[in-house]
Amino acid sequence: MRKPKIVILGAGYGGLMVATRLQKSVGTNEAEIVLVNKNDYHYETTWLHEASAGTLHHDRVRYDIKDVIDRNKVEFVQGTALEIKTEEKKVILESGEIDYDYLVVSLGAEPETFGIKGLKEHAFSIVNVNAARQIREHIEYQFATYNTDAEKKDERLTIVVGGAGFTGIEFLGELANRVPELCKEYDVDYHKVKIICVEAAPMVLPGFDPELVNYAVSHLEKKGVQFMIGTAIKEATPEGIIVGKGEDEVEEIKAATVVWAAGVRGNSIIENSGIEAMRGRVKVQPDLRAPGHDNLFIIGDCSLIINEEINRPYPPTAQIAMQQGEVCARNITALIRNKTELETFTPDIKGTVCSLGEHDAIGVAFGKKMVGTKASFMKKMIDNRALYMVGGPSLVLKKGKFNVL
Amino acid sequence: MRKPKIVILGAGYGGLMVATRLQKSVGTNEAEIVLVNKNDYHYETTWLHEASAGTLHHDRVRYDIKDVIDRNKVEFVQGTALEIKTEEKKVILESGEIDYDYLVVSLGAEPETFGIKGLKEHAFSIVNVNAARQIREHIEYQFATYNTDAEKKDERLTIVVGGAGFTGIEFLGELANRVPELCKEYDVDYHKVKIICVEAAPMVLPGFDPELVNYAVSHLEKKGVQFMIGTAIKEATPEGIIVGKGEDEVEEIKAATVVWAAGVRGNSIIENSGIEAMRGRVKVQPDLRAPGHDNLFIIGDCSLIINEEINRPYPPTAQIAMQQGEVCARNITALIRNKTELETFTPDIKGTVCSLGEHDAIGVAFGKKMVGTKASFMKKMIDNRALYMVGGPSLVLKKGKFNVL
């Protein structure tokens, strides 16, 4: 009898969780396990804002996949998935193809630009390691160039962050800490630098406790961040952005750096493969399978789970992706052992902490609101826990965050 | 009786030497001494290639002028000189003007582009700290961007250095060491990187011993540098350069980074002020005064001294500028004491060492040819000596180079 073949697409939080759990639960005789990922490394998506601002080196944000998988159990294929042929049970890669009996799609998110003109061309997005270090270097280059211009262009020192959600706020926190260092490095007058957060919604950090939001905003404002709330970006141009002002008016904000952090959507491979989705996110069944596909699991940012309490989707987070990964691994193990009863996934939100730079944060953990160093410490514990879940104590020691103050 | 006012324009090797020698030799009652410089720091022009390649931080390459001048004796004015009005004995600054009785012009060199089209717009020059860190950041940004391009552009990884003279070769040595680090930092395949040296003259390092030149070329070639000797740059474009090939043909070399290191000329203020000069360099009298101006000394890269042995001008170097500074200070001291006999300047070339990266070099010192670590050590001694001459042992300890291997 042929061994069933389990293919996992993507080595993010969810995919690595599936792979590391399956390599423990499934015997080599029971199934073949293949992990496919674009890079030979995993990166901590939730730490990319630090690498983008330049406050944490990008090598601290990634680790080799081979360090955490058991290569006797899991075959690693470096490749980029282009399309899933569900009828033929195979995945088309950029080079070659791969067939499967069970497929896990854990491909993460893409930036959602909501059709805003010029954003794709003229704005950066904090999407991966390549993008993060490009943003870091782009900002540094603007500072480095400022003093070489015959006529000083202050817009070189203007950084616009689109979006006051989780990623936007965390990135602003790092930027606010980084800018004084950049000013020193490149002999730039701190008062010439502008960091502007433009948010279309009428609020910062929707879903967060208002007291915590106030703390975050006043912390960032004290560090020089300007907030333009309830202000929509109409267009991004080579010179900056154009925002709506009042009913019909628009205003140009000149900025050499525009970082779009206002939204994500599921991976476009989902739609390219004809799987029903909303903005690339599939409303999965309780057992994490795509509706109508009994061998296709979708987890992480490409899945959509409804929070019944408020009847809204849970925002995609690493926390949920990892919890889904564990359930997904158990359900696949059950399936290859011909069990029909699959486990139902229910998110267990232990807490949410939004960092405001290295030594400050706001958040709720174990039902308690917290700010400042306490919240910042909790954030580092959350970051270290993600490492621990995938790679155990050795990975925490290697890549963990310990600089508490 | 009014005290004579000595104004020194420029705090490079020559200018600082004049200032630090005058503050020792001249009493506060004898003369007023003013040092004018664009920045409040001095930088080691001969180390800028390291800061440009990113192998030495630019803060290691500069120090505060106030750390080496005696402010009871020398007044420091931060300003940019635009024109010298010799008849009126005053200097026009970007803001304000300053009158003098004795003027020392020690303003250093500017890049000489020989009218080659596009060079000023599209090529970098290693001229000062601002330019050096811009070059460093520009190169880093190209590497950082390489992996984010949907279609990889290998020309992002091509660096053209125009000129195989002293600066060109020293910069190539640093680049060759830096590129493997950049490849690691940005996950770039080393074999995709090209470092090309384009030199119009039929030789590398003219004036150097052929055996040493061979050592340098083969060292750099081993590290991946391609030499295109006897090849003239016809034009620089936003995409790279166009070089002559054979009689009438041209060839395009696509390169995101073009650094022009093929020639310098004196400061253009010389011509703007109606002082007779060749490419901004004034053939000074033996006592270092400009012909026809008995209160105007010109030293360093704006002066031109003929090497009688070969009937050619000495190339402008820090060594000569500093020696001129000492003589200039003694001659001014003599003049304010109403002595008429001035000292004649004769260069005393102690040696010339061209570095090939941190741990290798070629050169001649005290009449001996040397290569490798010995030459590299000698280079560091020369660099440290320049610090010692201006700021004594404390400046050497603060800014010196000691990492011998």
UniProtKB/TrEMBL annotation, chains A, B:
Look up the record and name the cofactor or cofactors this protein needs. Answer: FAD
Q: Name one GO molecular function term.
A: NAD(P)H dehydrogenase (quinone) activity
* Keyword Oxidoreductase set for record: yes
Q: Which domain of life is it from?
A: Bacteria
Q: Which InterPro entries match?
A: FAD/NAD-bd_sf, FAD/NAD-binding_dom, NADH-Q_oxidoreductase
Q: Name one Pfam family in it.
A: Pyr_redox_2
Record-annotated membrane-spanning stretches: none
Similarity section: Belongs to the NADH dehydrogenase family.
Query: What protein is this chain from?
Result: NADH dehydrogenase
**Which organism's genome codes for this protein?**
Cytobacillus oceanisediminis
Organismal lineage: Bacteria, Bacillati, Bacillota, Bacilli, Bacillales
